[in-house]
């Protein structure tokens, strides 16, 4: 079963938006973004009604969290496959024998940690991932939170004049400056080329139909079709605007927590404030569609 394509049941499911949940318990972190879900065991087969409610919870809350989960690597991969085919990261290290199981790790020997700046995962791909499912198994004694921000809220808070200005503009997203050399210390050799793609600055979410800002500090190189200095000024403004704490939630990890975020409408930023301690887990990333 794939819940990634826009199909009949999906539309029906969305018509249920805002209805009470029957198979899961949901506690919102903020009115804008983030919800913790309980009553689900991700290590066991999940019946379709519960899977559909998990998907609706993601659509309504942009990022959902699960605590105290025990999943094998296979179960983590299987959970991701319920939402669509899995994505292969163009650069990051993965678990042996599992190219779809990205390693998220920082410890005393690290010179960087994954996701330290605001970004939407691999937005430099022609078809960037729809979602990412991060399972953190080892946490530092404190710190190592992840921040998430709603790009719907950021878009909706723009003035009508700014919305009109941005409508129809596209931006170049480039993986080269991000990925080249980034994983050398993890023993990953550079590739000849990294992905780059042009995407609309405002995208419409294929499931909810809502508009979201789709530029990010990590990958967006410039807005196309306007002078370079104008692009720099507009992007600087948009980045400051979208980083307003009003659009955010912050997740405090415990060992065996899972976060599942929707890259089409949310950005995230991982806090590396715990050196020299260790934080370790795996990310399964679900393929997405070309943004429109
Ligand atoms: C990432 O960008 O996938 C890393 C997020 C995190 O480590 O919290």
From TrEMBL:
Gene3D superfamilies: Clavaminate synthase-like. Keywords: Dioxygenase, Iron, Metal-binding, Oxidoreductase. One of its GO terms (biological process) is sulfur compound metabolic process. Residues 27-285 form the TauD/TfdA-like domain. GO terms for cellular component: cytoplasm. GO terms for molecular function: metal ion binding; taurine dioxygenase activity. It holds the Pfam family TauD. Belongs to the TfdA dioxygenase family. This is Taurine dioxygenase. It comes from Belnapia rosea.
């Amino acid at each position: 079963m794939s819940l990634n394509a826009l199909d009949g049941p999906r539309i029906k499911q969305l018509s249920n938006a805002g209805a009470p949940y029957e198979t899961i318990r949901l506690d919102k972190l903020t009115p804008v973004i983030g919800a913790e879900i309980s009553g689900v065991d991700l290590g066991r087969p999940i019946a379709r009604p519960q899977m559909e409610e998990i998907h609706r919870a993601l659509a309504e809350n942009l990022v959902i969290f699960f605590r105290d989960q025990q999943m094998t690597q296979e179960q983590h991969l299987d959970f991701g496959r319920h939402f669509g085919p899995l994505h292969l990261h163009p650069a990051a290290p993965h678990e042996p024998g599992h190219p779809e199981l990205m390693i998220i790790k920082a410890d005393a020997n690290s010179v960087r940690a994954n996701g330290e700046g605001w970004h939407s995962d691999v937005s430099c791909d022609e078809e960037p991932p729809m979602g990412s499912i991060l399972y953190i198994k080892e946490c530092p004694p404190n710190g190592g939170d992840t921040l998430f921000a709603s790009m719907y809220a950021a878009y909706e808070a723009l003035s009508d004049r700014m919305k009109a200005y941005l409508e129809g503009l596209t931006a170049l997203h480039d993986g080269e400056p991000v990925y080249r050399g980034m994983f050398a210390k993890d023993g990953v050799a550079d590739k000849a080329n990294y992905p780059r793609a042009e995407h609309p600055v405002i995208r419409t979410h294929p499931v909810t139909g809502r508009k979201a800002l789709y530029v990010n500090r990590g990958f967006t190189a410039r807005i196309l079709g306007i002078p370079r200095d104008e692009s720099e000024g507009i992007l600087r403004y948009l980045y400051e605007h979208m980083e307003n704490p009003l659009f955010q939630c912050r997740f405090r990890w415990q060992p065996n927590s899972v976060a599942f975020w929707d890259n089409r409408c949310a950005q995230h930023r991982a806090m590396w404030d715990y050196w020299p301690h260790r934080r370790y887990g795996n990310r399964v990333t679900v393929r997405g569609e070309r943004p429109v």
